[in-house]
Amino acid sequence: MLPPASAEPNPAPVTKKRIGQLPTSAVPLAALATNAARAWAASELPALLWLAKADFTALAASFAQNRDAAEAAGDQRSPQARRLQELDQQLDKNLRYVKAYLAEEHEQDQGRAYFP
Question: Which residue in 19, 27, 45, 110 has the fewest CB atoms around it within 10 Å?
């Protein structure tokens, strides 16, 4: 007796969605680094070849402190940063026109770059 024929000869493989193990935002990452430094300093685990326990603790504290400073300065920076983003978008949008004008003006000298 033959098995019944299926509608699909080779079903599509099931893909698994992978989630990163580290947080992607700065607040949870700073908390994780601080907790990891505290736990590593309290444990009997040895230091790494490239990083001592005290150095990691200092780096975690520095990251948390700089994150707090950046968050405090963010309110003052946001209008300027927004304006720079708008200017970048405007430049990206109109850059092709500038390149076309330069190409028209310098048609005879095709080997030389006038706009890197």
Answer: 19
User: How crowded is the C-beta side of 97, counted as CA atoms within 13 Å?
Assistant: 5
Task: Tell me the CA distances in angstroms from 56 to 29, 39, 40, 59, one per residue in order.
Answer: 14, 11, 9, 5
CA distance 32 to 38: 10
CA distances from residue 94 to 88, 97, 99, 112 in whole angstroms, order as listed: 10, 5, 9, 22
The answer to whether the predicted template modeling score (pTM) of the entire model surpasses 0.85 is no
3-state secondary structure of 95: helix
Torsion of CA 15, 21, 26, 30, to 10 degrees: 170
Amino acid at 48: L
Q: How far apart are the first and last CA of the chain?
A: 71
